[in-house]
Amino acid sequence: MNGVELRNVTKAYAGITVMENINLEIADGDFLVLLGPSGCGKSTLLNMIAGLEPVTGGAIDINGRDVTALEPDERDIAMVFQSYALYPTMSVRKNIGFGLKMAGMPKPEIEERVNEVAELLQITPLLDRKPSQLSGGQQQRVAIGRALVREPAVFLFDEPLSNLDAKLRADMRIELKRLHERLGRTIVYVTHDQIEAMTLATKVVVLDRGSIQQADTPENVYRRPANRFVASFVGAPTMNFVDGTLVRDGDQVFFDTGNGKLPLVDVPAEASDLVGRSMTLGARPEHLMFDDAGISARVVLAEPTGPDQYVRLAVAGAEMTARSGPEQAFKSGSDIGVVIDGARMSLFDVENGKALLHG
Q1: What DSSP element (H or E) covers 92?
Q2: What is the DSSP annotation of 212-230?
Q3: Cβ-contact 9, 58 below 8 angstroms
Q4: Of 69, 157, 239, 263, which residue is 20 to 30 A from 184 by alpha carbon distance?
Q5: In this predicted structure, what is the pLDDT of residue 164?
Q6: Which residue has the higher pLDDT, 50 or 85?
């Protein structure tokens, strides 16, 4: 296949296995994001694709070619690191073209490629400056340009925006997305920032403790998490979780926490098979709806964020967060009725955390 394929890839250090039997297909032209907390194995996986870390077992193919035993410079990849790693004494022009010069490419062709990449990244006026004369965002563009100019089959990005401030990160996310749409190249991108993952990716791979928890579109990872870990890691504020039992009272379905019954509306028919079973209910803040006919909830705290506000509620023996527009006023200590949108909730096995049902 074109793109990247990992087949039963295993990684061990000093006899201790940290990643085992990783199977992953990255289609040609995908923008795949490896997402997870620190220590989950995402950078290790990227480094194995790059050839910077040897695999202990399994195989890696790039564009249909087994590259498992090949050196990094033989894999037709280019990598952008968290550190810009620019040569301080060289101009932007020379930094971008250095790899081509070392490969023996003729000077006129190097100049042509550098100019094309500089125009694409909108850094043409900076070509004769030194890295010390550039902002962080400009330096990152140069680092990306150095990778682009080689025209590899696959681009690898290892947390490239971590050193930028919030506004620059947002600006660079837009630039990277536009760049991918223009070039259509395969990108594998490592981050612990879920906003980067959700906004950039065509496919997200969520990792935890060296194993893939879910590999899917950003929408499905958010709306249909494979397990409780994915549901808790993706989304800010995090998904609300409460243990209890699904019960039915006539035509109405509730989630009984033992300290109250949360009313559910628009519950899918498949939920009937789960009535009476102990489980974990997962509901994102936007899945809690204010309704005078719902269960009474006590307002603990309201957090305005501008376009939204997040309201912390004490309800049915648990604390849950709801999302509201800015126009509604909430007073700490007041009571308000709440129902849960059963059409968008998730239910998880209380023992292993696997998803049982998505609304």
Answers
A1: helix 92-102
A2: EEEEE-HHHHHHS-SBHHH
A3: yes
A4: 69
A5: 84
A6: 50
pLDDT value of position 85: 87
Based on the fold, state whether residues 85 and 179 are members of the same structural domain.
yes
Instruction: Give the C-alpha distances (Å, rounded to integers) separating 114 from 76, 98, 152.
Output: 19, 10, 15
Mean pLDDT of 171-179: 90
pLDDT at 167: 87
pLDDT at 77 over 70: yes
Q: Check: CB of residue 260 under 8 Å from CB of residue 295.
A: yes
Please say whether the beta carbons of 36 and 43 come within 8 A.
no
Strand residues in 130-287 grouped as ranges (E) = 154-158, 186-191, 203-208, 211-216, 240-249, 252-256, 261-265, 278-283
CA 236/CA 284 separation, integer angstroms: 9
Q: State the distance between the two ends of the chain, measured CA to CA, in whole angstroms.
A: 35
* Backbone conformation region of residue 76, classed left if phi is above 0, alpha if psi is from -120 to 50, else beta: left
The Cα 302–Cα 4 span in angstroms is: 46
**47, 46, 146: which is closest to 96 by C-alpha?**
146
Q: Mean per-residue pLDDT for 339-345?
A: 97
Q: Are the beta carbons of 143 and 80 closer than 8 angstroms?
A: yes
Task: Answer whether residue 1 shows pLDDT above 80.
Answer: no
- Give the CATH number, domain containing residue 246: 2.40.50.140
How confident is the model at residue 307, as a pLDDT?
A: 92
* Length of the chain (residues): 359
Q: Within this chain, do residues 185 and 248 fall inside the same structural domain, yes or no?
A: no
Q: Which domain holds residue 267?
A: 240-358
Beta strands per DSSP E along the chain: 3-13, 16-27, 31-35, 57-62, 65-66, 77-80, 154-158, 186-191, 203-208, 211-216, 240-249, 252-256, 261-265, 278-283, 288-304, 309-315, 318-324, 335-341, 346-348, 355-358
pLDDT at 25 over 70: yes
Among 161, 195, 227, the domain boundary falls at 227
Q: Average of pLDDT values for 226-254? A: 95
Q: What's the gap between Cα 113 and its chain centre?
A: 32
Residue 187 domain-assigned (yes or no): yes
| pLDDT beyond 90 at 333 | yes
